Amino acid sequence: MGEGRRHHRVPRCKRCGQPAVIFMRQHRLALCETHYQEWFVNYTQRTIEKYHMFRPEHRILVAVSGGKDSLALWDVLTQLGYKADGLYIGLGIDEGTRYSELSLEAIRGFMAERPGLRLNIVDMKESYGETIPELARRTRRGRGKPCSVCGLSKRHIMNEVALREGYDVLATGHNLDDEAAVLFQNTLHWQTGYLARQSPVLEATHPGLVRKVKPFCRFYEREVAAYAIVRGIEYQYDECPFSVGATTIYYKELLNRLERQSPGSKFQFYTQFLNAKKKGLITFHEPEGEVVLRPCRICGQPTTAGEICAFCRMWVRPDMDPEEAKKVVPTLKLRVETS
Amino acid sequence: MGEGRRHHRVPRCKRCGQPAVIFMRQHRLALCETHYQEWFVNYTQRTIEKYHMFRPEHRILVAVSGGKDSLALWDVLTQLGYKADGLYIGLGIDEGTRYSELSLEAIRGFMAERPGLRLNIVDMKESYGETIPELARRTRRGRGKPCSVCGLSKRHIMNEVALREGYDVLATGHNLDDEAAVLFQNTLHWQTGYLARQSPVLEATHPGLVRKVKPFCRFYEREVAAYAIVRGIEYQYDECPFSVGATTIYYKELLNRLERQSPGSKFQFYTQFLNAKKKGLITFHEPEGEVVLRPCRICGQPTTAGEICAFCRMWVRPDMDPEEAKKVVPTLKLRVETS
Question: How much is the pTM?
Fold first, then answer.
């Protein structure tokens, strides 16, 4: 029996021969728990270098939601010795599930086991007087679902905190499944402007914009989840209660069908897109010519939307005079917690 | 009850108010049997003009398989007054279903009702001594499935007949579902060379290549089927017995899911791709630089494959001397039937 075992197809770790916990077909690589953690951290470093995301002297702000992707990212960047602080935005989403409360609890649990971390906290209710669901109910933009208001607010706040606190780069936990779904959606509609910009690195094309990077863009979601689990990270398992039925989820399902039929196709779809752009085999142009960014008259953040950015317009009425308008947009309040 | 009826959502023909037989969401158009036929013919003419496919003085060779698409195309081009002859290639596919035999019968039935048509016939067995399944079994290329050998042979023969008989253009019955599936496949793999060339018109980039056009590229498959049915065309209903499990069918299914979820998305995916290319919002380049076409030493057709084209290599062995090689490739025999 001992002899026969060798012939079974039990996946073995490529490094040490122990039973593997994961097999990644796109890399033809099986690894045990220990070597998977090592590989995952090193592969993140390779992605950071490949796309020139940042260097050790840079100050990094990690957008932390409490989910597996962002906590795993914070964990890896810290292990790699980067100066990475967190940013948590309290969205005030409850809807009977205590979603936001449990998210912050997960982050605090994560920090408690890792002394020396620094977390910036912006609470929507505290800063702006309204939670995301409340803001969505009050504004035109939020009609139906709060996702649009939520995305808009998070982008605004992340940018403001990064610039105000002097961070060099904002890192988000977007994984391959996220990136491939967005690419798929943009491709099906040939959104050439979005396709031109989609990249693991968004350069700061304006002094009022922070540089943005996605160090996990080449990991499948299941790979990030596996890392979080073997590292013992207790993350917030629940999805946002509002994410049910989101279009991105629909495109993710279609891509998952493709992946089941032809494993590795998601990875190829995304990486071949990046390669083809890099080699100049595809060029995309903005449909309306180059996008012009001008500072918002209220908050100063660059906007393409005219005089006042979409975020400030959630408070400013068109008939307000300029002085009054400046007063109605609440200002961001930042708290800091450390471990 | 008569009064109540008006309030039912019975789709009515936009032209005459009679009950509609078809509703095309992407055009927001419902039509009755009579006006659908009229619209279908006119829309084909508009596609021909939009893409500058051909003019009334040109001689057109229609590739006719006996299926709904090619017979409907021949029918429409004839109605529009174009000089359109058919080309049928007898593939010798039987496999218990009499597929090829029934295809030619459908074409003859179609012609019998339309005096004055001219059909060019090339029979694989007659010309080359082997049917497609036989050729596939003998050659390396055919291993597994005969589809590759079949596609190669049809392209070679269509081009040879068109040039030899002095046709200006080759028209095929590819519909939107066909074109969108190929586009989808090429996009998922970012095949920039294919994406550069995919178009309703393939120009003759070499004197040894015929110009190719797809006048049905903007019709959904179901629209062509509806036209064939209301015109009473008795086409070959069976799919080729070898088409089961083809990758194109798999991509078609995925696109059909998308279409069900979001009607019109197939039409948009394809037409927005063409528009974006035309407006210069996307540019694709060949990965290996410009493709160089050289005439095959045996048959003279342009090829990228080296000295001898892939078609002739089904007969020529690498060790044959040039004179011997020229003799082993059989020559095409053309028969003509008229109605």
Answer: 0.89
CA distances from A74 to A166, B65, B312 (A): 18, 60, 60
Q: Which residue of A has its CA nearest to B268?
A: A189
Nearest residue, CB atoms, A192 vs list B189, B268, B276: B276
Which residues lie closer than 8 Å to A177 by C-beta, 6 or more apart? A220, A221, A252, A255, A266
At B271-306, the pLDDT tens digits run: 999 999 999 999 999 887 777 889 998 999 999 878
- How close B67 comes to chain A (CA, Å)? 29
Q: Calculate how close chain B gets to A194, using CA atoms only, in Å.
A: 12
* CATH superfamily ID and name for A34-290+330-338: HUPs (3.40.50.620)
Residues in chain A within 8 Å Cβ distance of B192:
276, 281-282
Tokens representing residue B62 in the block: 């229609």
* A197-235 per-position pLDDT tens digit: 999 999 998 899 999 999 999 999 999 999 999 999 999
Task: Tell me the chain B residues in contact with residue A286 when contact means C-beta distances shorter than 8 Å.
Answer: 281
Size of the A and B interface in Cβ pairs below 8 Å: 64
ipTM over 0.90: no
Closest chain B C-alpha to A200 CA, distance in angstroms: 18
Q: Look at B285 and A280 and tell me if their CB atoms are within 8 Å.
A: yes
Contact A285 B281 (CB under 8 A): yes
